[in-house]
Each structure stands twice: as structure tokens, then as C-alpha cells.
Amino acid sequence: xxxxxxxxxxxxxxxxxxxxxxxxxxxxxxxxxxxxxxxxxxxxxxxxxxxxxxxxxxxxxxxxxxxxxxxxxxxxxxxxxxxxxxxxxxxxxxxxxxxxxxxxxxx
Length: 107
Fold this sequence. Notes:
- The chain is α+β, with helices and mostly antiparallel strands.
- It has helices at 14-30, 65-73, 75-88, and strands spanning 2-9, 37-42, 54-62, 92-98.
- Strands 2-3-1-4 form a 4-stranded antiparallel sheet.
- Helix 1 runs antiparallel to helix 3.
- The mean pLDDT is 94.
- GO terms for molecular function: oxidoreductase activity.
């Protein structure tokens, strides 16, 4: 399992950002071949108080790194990337991750 993780800093105009993200960018990204799951989290605060550094996080889950790379090279992946750079290029940090299953029990 591979994840493409996008972290967005606070935009100047949150209403305009949300409108574009949820009405344009999200639906465009959801069409990427091989994308199994897309989880969007709005960051509502920091344990230390205040807003924190980030505004939004999106985790895009693929079966493998190969599937993710193929999706990014597809027409839909390229369209999503172009849109991302047009509205949030200065706000976004992208990372690739893999799930790690630790043998821990929460009590």
C-alpha cells in the first residue's frame, strides 16, 4: 500500500480555497486510475493551541508505488497535478508514504 500525502498551509482566502478544492480539484483527483481511497482531513487546531501550521491534509491510497506512479503519469494524474499547481502550488507539500503495521495495543 502506498500513499501520496498532500499537506496544505493556510490559504489567504479559505472560502475560495475550499470551493476550488472540493468542487474542482477533489473530483478531478478522484478520477486518477488506480486511486483506491482519498481521505481529506481539515486541520482544526494544534495540541499546543492555535491553528497550527497546516489547513488541510489529503491522503491518496494506491495498491503499490507502481500503481501510484502509473496514476500520476495518466492524463487524469497530469490534469490533477496541473490544477494543483495553478491554485495551491505555493501552499502544498507532497510526500509519499507506506503504511507501517506496528504491534501495539492502545489501552
